[in-house]
Amino acid sequence: VFIGSCFGDSQLIRLHPDKDENDSNIEVLESFTNLGPIQDFCVVDLERQGQGQVVTCSGTLKDGSLRVVRNGIGINEQAAVELPGIKGLWSLRESIDAQYDKYLIQSFVNETRVLEIADEELSETEIDGFDHNAQTIFCSNVLGDCLLQITEVSLRLVSTKSKQLLKEWFPPNGERITVAGGNVQQVVLTSGKRTLIYLDVSNGDVTEVKRIEMDQEIACLNLNPLGEKSDHNKSDFVAVGHWNLSLSMLRLPSMEVVCTESIGGDAIPRSLLLVTLEGVDYLLCALGDGYLFTFAIDASTAQIGERKKISLGTHPMILSKFMSRGATHVFAASDRPTVIYSNNRKLLFSNVNLKEVTQMAPFNSEGFPDSLAIATETSLRIGVIDDIQKLHIRTVYLREQPRRICHQESSKTFCVATLSIRINRDGEEVEEQFIKLFDDQTFEILDTYQLQEFENTCSVECASFSDDPTLYYIVGTATAVPQESEPKEGRLLVFEVIDRKLHLKASKEIKGAPYQIKPFNGKLLAGINSKIELFRLSDSDTGHMELVSECCHRGHILVLYLQTRGDFIVAGDLMRSISLLTYKQVDGQIEEIARDFNANWMTAVDILDDDTFLGAEGYFNLFTVRKNTDATSDEERARLEVVGEYHLGDMVNRFQRGSLVLRSSDTPTTDTIIFGTVNGMIGVIAVLSKEEYEFLLKVQDALNFVIKGVGGLRHEDWRSFENERTQGARAPKGFIDGDLIESFLDLRREKMEEVCHAIGSITVEELSRKIEELQRLH
User: Fold this and answer.
1) From the CB of residue 83, how many other CB atoms can be counted at a distance below 10 Å?
2) From CA 118, how far away is CA 715, in angstroms rounded?
3) What pTM was computed for the model?
4) Percentages of the chain per state (helix, strand, coil), in multiples of 5
5) Following CA atoms 120, 125, 127, 133 in sequence, which dihedral angle do they give, to the nearest 10 degrees?
6) What does the pLDDT look like over 488-533, one tens digit per residue?
């Protein structure tokens, strides 16, 4: 039975006729993560790596939890050592049929080092038959219980038992080996620049099978056997990359050239990989400029099929195959390391949360099971990789409902407002509300402050005040008496974290509910019922701190949302849409500059730039308004002009400025706003230039022409703005549907060309590159 939940995770369960040891007839087979409803969230860099993570207040009552949402794939580090200059990395087993890897081979410019794992510890050792005074080009276990080492001078076969040299093969005429690749039975290498030699290395011997001269210089090659379980198989083909920017597929053992593919551009192929993912055979080609070509190939004929090109960085890339949880994946080591994987027979790319990786080798040892050995410019790390998926969600179960959350970097804590319901002695439900302090790494509860009866938390913020650099948690509460339609009383509580505990430093009684509070130029701004009030923190006559009201602005229905920038204040009202105000420091007054005269029921507001403001309203729409700075009359200047309207299809509860992307040197610097919704959606809004918007509008129109909606539903109809006051739906404007734009990358080649033809004067490769750059925003 599938049980779908709006307030917690959904489940697939099995019903049993007999009870189990827990006195239950229900067995949970699988759970499906649901972030909804997201009542609040914050964006923080918990791992201090320059990448934001979203921590949400999710679920209700006993299903309440904190969810830590992280983009990309993490590496859980098991061991690390400073070791600069690694040029190659391979793992070797004690015998070809051994279950675990035992050796980790590191190649440097003029030497080769070996790490051996014993008793869960890594120690440096030597393999007698290896040439440790030369740079290793390729290394592997081979059939016949041998270890294979290829240097620029020779190919060596070494016994896995005695570690002595069994056989050494030298290239003809004293030439150097420049490129080499192999598997457990075969080796293909280059002697000189164009001589390609095919060797059989099984059964403890080296046999030259075929030698040919290529027309072009060879840059890289690969002969990984295709197929899901192919580790001990021979390869029928070898893929070769040339310096003249082309690829060749050669049939083995004849070395006959089956097909050649030009890749164009001006960057040479640096790494090739033949790999099977979810039963589909691919040739992956990494270039020196960080681009990756993916080719579907026919394993029976080696004919190269449809190709796609994607940017995965700016530096040369090295491709390596590895296994994780029984599935094959590919690691692309570069300045923006990426895991390439397949889902529903479609290639997907997920960033690894490391700054830069130069080499990677799978390292499945007893001490480090299912691990990866990863080399950077300065170090060697061994770690376990996360589940292969784009978003990773960690759940911190609270068994009570989290309502508001705020992070404080200085104390490394979260302040969370929670609601729980208990049954009293009379069998009645009683609400209890708490302010809880959590450690931001372990999520251990450090301290708890219980609120008074009927007191509800409305807002939580972190702020400092003028002449006091101390960071405080400010909590706004309202007393919700059951007989009152609106709260008439509330409190502003000022907490300082001392020794990981909450200390109440000041408490201010107020007349109403502080639905939103914001730090504002060294003071505290609060939306309290129908007014916006400004407070400063000062010392009272008794020597204690107190919040003192400085000024206020009235004339609203309910001020639910506030956002600030400089001296400007944007207010979101229950019914009266968005107002723009300013604080005049000389006069000590808050004045309204302009407002949107449409009657929108607001659910969230934010500021896009000095003149443009973002709003979400109760009919699942987003809209933007702009100041009329060029208006000629006071009446026009007092009106905020609606410049964007878009139907999202979900109710937004919160906007927060931030990004889930690990920023690198070539990541677009566009500011992004993250939003969370009632149904658990996390989305990203990015500001586009006028030129970008006009171009993407053409792309959107072309995609709508080529891709037909399910059931004949037009994209424009779904995204049209409509609520109770509009006379029919209004066509969307000022917004681009990013999901629709990115769907271009999933189209077949002929559909891509159809879209580009509809746009005019752009190639598939150019459009793909532009859209891939946009993808890196989230």
Assistant:
1) 16
2) 61
3) 0.77
4) 10, 50, 40
5) 140
6) 999 999 999 999 999 999 999 999 999 999 999 999 999 999 999 9
